[in-house]
Amino acid sequence: MRISVSILGADFARLGEEVEQINQAGSDWIHVDVMDGHFVPNITFGPNMVKSLRPMTKQPLDVHLMITEPQRFLQPFVKAGSDYITFHLEAEGNPAQTISMIHGLGAKAGISVRPGTPVEELFPFLQMVDMVLIMGVEPGFGGQKFNMDTLQKVRVLKQKLPELLIEIDGGVNAGNIAEIAHAGVDICVAGSAIVGQPNYTAAVSALRSAAQQ
Ligand code: DX5
Ligand code: ZN
């Protein structure tokens, strides 16, 4: 199980120190939540944030675009140093085209669905993407409660395509990560379960040991 730490709940005034703590914490990826105030009712940051983060960590930057027109911003986000670009199936634009644009720019492509979107809608794109991101909460805010029903989507996808990389995002904590792991999830995004906790290393270890239960 890989852990991708969401910086959404970080103290942005001291982001460098936060990333340094994440680098030492024993996690695997850094998850960057990009929100535009249209696709979701919250606003975060743009490509310049990725550019500033890039030299601060060796970990892959796992960029989650919660924006209405992802195609407009693929190039600036890849140029800034994103490794994975995940966009939403529900956003505007032809998903197959968005995936090939991401690949053409040299990044890995992920596709995501909100909790209410049926998993079957992803089927036409599974062979094209490097990763599927299943939302465990309505996108927009950290610290929400994980919707266990969304694990059914993971089971369906793993049965259909066992080698497909599956990431889950929203509400992951030490109390539910074992069930999430059993469903077949490969990467867990964790925000409030790590960032904002007194000790990031201890928080990552707690998640890892709980995942093995
Ligand atoms: C929600 C974001 C998630 C979330 C993770 O819109 O995509 O990455 O903030 O934070 P927690 O783990 O606190 O739900
Ligand atoms: Zn996210």
From TrEMBL:
Function statement: Catalyzes the reversible epimerization of D-ribulose 5-phosphate to D-xylulose 5-phosphate.
Record's cofactor remark: Binds 1 divalent metal cation per subunit.
UniProt xrefs under InterPro entries: Aldolase_TIM, Ribul_P_3_epim, Ribul_P_3_epim-like, RibuloseP-bd_barrel
Residue positions binding a divalent metal cation: H31, D33, H64, D169
Alphabetically ordered keywords of this record: Carbohydrate metabolism, Cobalt, Isomerase, Manganese, Metal-binding, Zinc
Record-listed E.C. numbers: 5.1.3.1
Keyword Ribosomal protein: no
Active site, UniProt feature: D33 (proton acceptor), D169 (proton donor)
Endpoints of the signal sequence: none
NCBIfam families: PRK05581.1-4, rpe
Gene Ontology cellular component annotations, sorted alphabetically: cytoplasm
CDD domains attached to this UniProt entry: RPE
Cofactor: Fe(2+); Mn(2+); Co(2+); a divalent metal cation
Pfam families registered for this protein in UniProt: Ribul_P_3_epim
Binding site for substrate: S6, H64, G140, F141, G142, G143, D169, G170, G171, G191, S192
Pathway entry: Carbohydrate degradation
Any one GO biological process: pentose-phosphate shunt
GO molecular function terms listed in the Swiss-Prot or TrEMBL record: D-ribulose-phosphate 3-epimerase activity; metal ion binding
Full protein name: Ribulose-phosphate 3-epimerase
Record's catalysed reaction(s): D-ribulose 5-phosphate = D-xylulose 5-phosphate
Family indicated by similarity: Belongs to the ribulose-phosphate 3-epimerase family.
